[in-house]
Design brief:
The complex is a heterodimer of chains A (286) and B (244). Chain A has 286 residues and is mainly alpha-helical. Chain A has a single domain, classed as ABC transporter involved in vitamin B12 uptake, BtuC. Chain A is built from 11 helices and 2 strands; from the N terminus they run ααααββααααααα. In chain A, a hairpin with a 2-residue loop joins strand 1 and strand 2. In chain A, helix 1 runs parallel beside helix 5 and helix 5 packs across helix 6. Chain B is α/β, with parallel strands linked by helices. In chain B, helix 5 crosses helix 6 and helix 6 runs parallel beside helix 7. Chain B has 10 helices and 10 strands. Chain B has 2 domains: 149 residues, P-loop containing nucleotide triphosphate hydrolases (Rossmann fold, 3-Layer(aba) Sandwich), CATH 3.40.50.300; 74 residues, no CATH class. Chain B has a 6-stranded mixed β-sheet with strand order 6-7-8-3-9-10, sandwiched between helices. Chain B has a 4-stranded antiparallel β-sheet with strand order 2-1-4-5, covered by helices on one side. Chain B is 35% helix and 26% strand. Classes of the chains: A mainly alpha (286), B alpha/beta (244). The complex binds adenosine-5'-triphosphate and magnesium ion (MG). Magnesium ion binds next to helix 1 of chain B.
């Protein structure tokens, strides 16, 4: 059996998951200019919300997913409102934001572990449907992941480009102070951006949960892949992140063609280092 | 009638008294020229009055009743104040049109979430951009404009705010003569509509032509104020400029 088609499929799926994380991460980074380390943990919270609703309370899957996405969005919004907003008011430095988000990440992750134990869990129900495409296999969940990424990208593009809210978001990311004086309530805008970015993260956590599974620490690895994708693609650029994510997906999966899968992370960080050294602005400059 | 007053407003940067105990009033329907040598505190005064820099002491009085011991950038739009910057500040990654449209956004964020700009927003933006001759450039990114066009766009954005009080920090600097004409007529029009206009400018011919009242700053303090023809012929004012 030829392995290349399956490698391509795996690469695309990995790229799609990283894209989703990078989209939310870049959206938030673009507007606030700091690395929100708590972003991945919000994804885990999305996954665990669905786990709790569907496994413990026997909710049907679709409503659980919707609640999970909204709940992740709300957590992101609340974290911004309670922590980052106060720091913005104090004009705290980027380092303070970074450390604060590290604190939020650690606290939330610990909370998840206390509530649900650190065990690996899966969200999947029954046996997975699989499809044959171009000589590779793709599961139903993976097909949904691809569809979601496309929808989110299209939705974000429309939102940012054509709505008044989108213009206010872009103005805030370009020149926050000037945005204020022309009457844009930048705190509100940033709050909404956190909701949106975190909801997307939540969805990615949920989908990963259906595809493989969830554990409290999953946020960190998702975050790191999202960050690497963003840096490769061009930090703060929504489309750059997607490009970087797919590139990373391909490099990772083809990188382990002939060697053990444990090399994946080493390869990912190797790529990150290469970019930081030789093209720190990423593929697409903002 | 004064629309904006400062009461003993002060700001210090370490050892520099950038604005020192300044009490002033600006009147509606007039252009007030704000002049003074480099580093005399003109831009800092504007920054204080528009919330960009918090003042150490003093107060701002708006109209007859609103007394403010501090102002934040987000407040000033609600007080119908707007400004331009000596070093032009635009939304660089947005189109010329969007730079103006974003100002016309209603302040209610939820209703703006899924809504596109309405026809009357577009018409207003068109009117303002045509006024400064940038309508043809509406789809270019602001970052790609020439220096003069950037200044004009910033002025257009301020005009689109439809404010009562306008601060212009050296709007003529570096402009070609045709562009200067445009800015002159925009400022006159704002005044004739009864707005309060404050103009920082180093060119005394422009000050003589445009300003109804003139305020001179020197080393952070008020040196003189009055009718431009009187103030500009005062010996201490001339000396302050010569001693630059
Ligand atoms: N953010 C700041 N930090 C430290 N010092 C500052 C700051 N802003 C202004 N100053 C100082 O305050 C003084 C007044 O500066 P300001 O820019 O207000 O002068 P200006 O009258 O606008 O001058 P110009 O005509 O050159 O624009 C200067 O000595 C300047 O160096
Ligand atoms: Mg100045």
């Amino acid at each position: 059996m030829d392995i290349i088609p399956q490698l391509v499929v795996n690469s695309i799926i990995a790229g799609a998951i990283y894209s989703m994380v990078a989209l939310g991460f870049n959206l938030i980074y673009g507007t606030t200019k700091f690395f929100n380390l708590a972003h991945g943990t919000v994804a885990a919270i999305g996954g665990y919300t669905v786990f709790y609703l569907s496994k413990s309370l026997d909710f049907p899957v679709l409503p659980s997913v919707i609640v999970g996405v909204l709940f992740a969005g709300c957590i992101g919004y609340l974290v911004d409102k309670s922590v980052f907003r106060a720091l913005r008011k104090k004009k705290a430095s980027g380092m303070v934001f970074l450390v604060a988000s590290l604190g939020v990440m650690t606290a939330l992750q610990a909370l998840v572990a206390i509530l649900f134990s650190s065990q690996f869990q899966t969200l999947s129900v029954g046996s997975a449907k699989v499809y044959q495409v171009f000589g590779g296999v793709i599961t139903q969940v993976q097909a949904i992941i691809l569809l979601c990424v496309l929808l989110i990208m299209a939705g974000l593009t429309l939102l940012l480009r054509f709505t008044r809210f989108g213009k206010a978001v872009r103005a805030t990311s370009d020149e926050e102070e000037v945005a204020k004086i022309v009457g844009i309530n930048t705190n509100k805008i940033i709050g909404r951006v956190f909701f949106l970015g975190s909801a997307i993260a939540g969805l990615s956590g949920i989908l990963v949960g259906f595809d493989t599974g969830i554990e409290p620490a999953m946020g960190l690895s998702l975050l790191l892949k999202g960050v690497i994708a963003s840096i490769i693609g061009g930090i703060g650029n929504v489309y750059g992140g997607v490009l970087g994510a797919f590139l990373l997906g391909f490099i990772e999966n083809f990188g382990i063609w002939k060697i053990s899968g444990e090399w994946k992370d080493a390869i990912a960080f190797g790529v990150l280092l290469i970019f930081l050294l030789f093209r720190p602005q990423g593929l697409i400059k903002k | 009638m004064p629309t904006l007053e400062t009461k003993s407003i002060s700001k210090r940067f370490d050892s520099i008294k950038a604005v020192d105990n300044v009490s002033l009033s600006f009147e509606a329907g007039k252009i007030t020229g704000l002049i003074g040598p480099n580093g005399s505190g003109k831009s800092t005064l504007i920054n204080l009055l528009t919330g960009f820099v918090p003042y150490d002491a003093g107060m701002l009085v708006l109209g007859e009743t609103t007394r403010l011991s501090r102002v934040r950038p987000y407040d000033i739009a609600t007080y119908d104040i707007t400004r331009t910057f000596q070093d032009v500040r635009l939304f660089e990654q947005m189109s010329v049109l969007d730079n103006v449209l974003v100002v016309l956004t209603e302040r209610n964020v939820w209703s703006a979430l899924f809504e596109k700009h309405k026809t009357y927003h577009l018409e207003k933006a068109k009117e303002v951009l045509e006024r400064v001759g940038l309508w043809e450039k509406r789809n270019q990114l602001a970052v790609n404009l020439s220096y003069g066009q950037r200044k004009l766009l910033e002025i257009a954005r301020a005009v689109a705010m439809d404010a009562n009080i306008y601060f212009f920090d050296e709007p003529f600097a570096g402009l070609f003569p045709e562009m200067r004409k445009v800015v002159t007529s925009v400022l006159k029009e704002l005044r004739n509509k009864g707005n309060t206009v404050i103009l920082v400018e180093h060119n005394m011919d422009i000050i003589r032509e445009l300003s109804d009242y003139c305020v001179v700053m020197d080393s952070g303090s008020l040196l003189a104020q009055g009718k431009p023809e009187v103030v500009l012929s005062r010996k201490d004012v001339i000396e302050a400029y010569l001693g630059e």
